[in-house]
């Protein structure tokens, strides 16, 4: 996820800054980045797009006219290409909109605020969601909420990767989402082929049918999956909660798999809306500070 976008003028003056999500990028880290840049400034000339990782932040930057610096601060595991493609567009648009103001800039940062709307449009990356589970847990039923064709591609071993891009309603700052679908066992067995996708996914949803045997089989794959997903991003969708007689309660499953678990039923008449609401809830849980309490077995069990 992009956390912050900055335009820095000559002499290191911050001309424009826009923050996304609740978590501010640490000011000291930004200063550290600028200091590091100054120490090899000859290399950043020429409009090339560069990237520098400091702590958990990846700075992707490009120099514009008059040595202005355009910087995206992202998560370190984000795929660079996805952001790089946008930085040139953003840079050109900023220069185009503010050509005169930049020339005679007197230090007033408010004159650049009209850029808020432009940047929000330009950098909206689709939310990347991986859906994984054993056969028959309801993955396809979830995908079928969304009209339109999916795209099928093959990995190196001819396993199918199914992707569907859908428009999102009702989640703040999210307009589009890319859903990927995998069957649990082949994914985990071939996990090295999918590390980039898993690590860069905003959320990885492990779907279970909430049946005892399905949950216990799923459990065997959790550790390996968790090791390849960003902290707090692997969650469980306890599907088929309508099957009251056989479905384990979400709290039980959460305890058993030691992962944040959300109850669900895909055959609910309002399942689509509820699915969006859940995604919103997952996102806000991920970005709140107590993210992954449930991931530590030592944490008190939910009751
Ligand atoms: N009662 C109930 N049935 C469900 C629910 N979700 C899915 N099903 C049914 O479960 C069956 C399997 O669902 P699918 O969506 O095909 O499962 P899948 O995970 O895509 O399965 P594979 O494609 O074989 O991997 C279908 O008959 C669905 O109608 C649910 O929440 N409640
Ligand atoms: Mg299916």
Question: What structural keywords apply?
Answer:
single chain, 303 residues, alpha/beta, Beta-Lactamase, Rossmann fold, 2 domains, 7-stranded mixed sheet, 5-stranded antiparallel sheet, 10 helices, 24% strand, disordered C terminus, binds guanosine-5'-triphosphate, binds magnesium ion
Q: How far apart, in Å, are the first and last alpha carbons? A: 33 Å
Q: Pick out the low-confidence regions.
A: 289-303
What is the global morphology?
elongated
User: In CATH, what is the homologous superfamily of the largest domain?
Assistant: P-loop containing nucleotide triphosphate hydrolases
DSSP strand content: 15-25%
CATH architectural grouping of the largest domain: 3-Layer(aba) Sandwich
- Which structural class should the secondary elements be placed in? alpha/beta
Order of helices and strands: EEHEEEHHHEHEEEHHEHEHEH
Q: Taking Cα atoms only, what radius of gyration do you get, to the nearest Å?
A: 22 Å
CATH topology tier name of the largest domain:
Rossmann fold
Bound small molecules, by name, code or SMILES, are: guanosine-5'-triphosphate, magnesium ion
Q: How many beta strands in the DSSP annotation?
A: 12
CATH class categorisation of the largest domain: Alpha Beta
The number of distinct structural domains comes to: 2
